[in-house]
Q: What sequence folds into this?
């Protein structure tokens, strides 16, 4: 049997893994093509600059004109913490029947907030990296998103799906541990 409990924990764990991968892998925004002499992979924490086959890793500048990166960092880290707390609370609810309903409702709220936080962080990063602001043209203008930002986007989608799935099953009169996805 494939229960909602397994679904909730599995989706939450995959969302956490995707979010951590998106947070830790540099390259949310890439300027230049791989065949060019200079390619820059901008990430939240580090930036990798490749010139003529040699690459150098630097800490991403998050001061002055780039202080907006701090906003992205906060939203993305808060989201990862919220997902971890939500999955932990759900697991505790599996073993503590008396408060499980409250913990499951809290799980739904935390997962929805985490998904929203991820989307806001991605939106700020993409908007500012693309140079869609009143400020002069940035060095990141003309770049494109790369796959690590997709990991965080996938985490947001999984958070929303998890919150939706558990939220829908909370509306039934059965307890979550008795509900199965494939029972008729």
A:
């Amino acid at each position: 049997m494939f229960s909602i409990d397994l679904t909730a924990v599995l989706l939450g764990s995959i969302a956490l893994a995707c979010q951590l991968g998106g947070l830790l892998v540099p390259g949310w925004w890439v300027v230049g093509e791989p065949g060019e002499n200079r390619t820059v992979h901008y990430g939240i924490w580090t930036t990798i600059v490749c010139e003529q086959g040699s690459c150098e890793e630097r800490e991403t500048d998050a001061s002055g004109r780039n202080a907006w990166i701090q906003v992205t960092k906060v939203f993305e880290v808060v989201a990862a913490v919220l997902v971890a707390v939500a999955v932990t609370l759900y697991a505790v609810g599996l073993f503590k029947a008396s408060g499980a309903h409250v913990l499951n409702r809290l799980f739904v709220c935390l997962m929805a907030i985490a998904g929203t936080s991820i989307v806001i962080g991605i939106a700020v990063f993409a908007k500012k990296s693309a140079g869609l602001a009143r400020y002069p043209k940035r060095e990141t203008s003309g770049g494109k998103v790369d796959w690590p930002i997709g990991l965080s986007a996938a985490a947001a989608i999984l958070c929303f799906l998890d919150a939706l799935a558990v939220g829908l099953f909370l509306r039934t009169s059965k307890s979550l541990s008795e509900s199965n996805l494939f029972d008729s």
Summary: The mean pLDDT is 85.
